[in-house]
Amino acid sequence: MAHQNKRLNFTVDENTELLKFLLKVMSNRSRNSVKSILTRGQVTVDEHMETKHNYPLKPGQTVSVLKNNEAKKETVLVGMSILYEDRDIIVINKDAGLLSIATEKERNLTAHHQLMEYVQREHPANRIFIVHRLDKDTSGVMMFAKSEKTKRKLQDNWKKLVKERTYVALVEGELKQNKGTIKSWLKETKTHYMFSSSLKNNGQLAITHFKKIQGNKDYSLVEMQLETGRKNQIRVHMRDLGHPVVGDKKYGSKENVIGRLGLHAKILSFYHPRTNQFMLFRADVPKLFMKKAK
Fewest 10 Å CB contacts: which of 47, 143, 216, 289? Predict the structure, then answer.
């Protein structure tokens, strides 16, 4: 997140939609100017980036706007911050709501595109390469490579180089088990829906170790370590357990009480692809997760 003095913070006092709210609190600006602030990803709701004009707001939520003069400064990255950078890699903390890489609908407002622009300011030949992904609505630690060679090395030796990938999920219901391991074979339908098969080798093997951190009768905060990194793995495994990730309509969640997906990449640790030095990066668990599972 940007420092507070770079942002204007507003508290929502009634049910409304995001654009409507912004037009009201920023009445000194034209409609077009407010719209473009939204489209450029300068607005966050309760710490997640939001660009949808009709995003529903509830009383008590905090809407925060990155000031234009700050957004224009070249080093400002929208919806993310750099945790570490050297000549081989960049590690970021990504906000929920920011795409990792381009889709058909969105080309520019992605972590990859912004980092590409960022490194090309130093030299036009510089590039950024995707090593692994985080879903758009998942926040937390993510690593990029600065060369094809580094990307290859990381991807080809992922199991050996990456030591820990720890996620925290806010899930629905009271998790009775304090810890355990979920193992299944994941398959994908034509509509990109992932599901578990218990038949051996019927799909890609997925293994998730979990332990409950805290919880109440409605929500549980769960820490997971991934032994494999399959698409939507945690989301499918939590649904299999009968405790879908909060806000995950695709995989069985009934309500969205935090206005985002309850999934966060908390720790990524690995051996550096060039120096072999051990490195560990963490991104704090969103406060909203803690609050709900108190």
Answer: 216
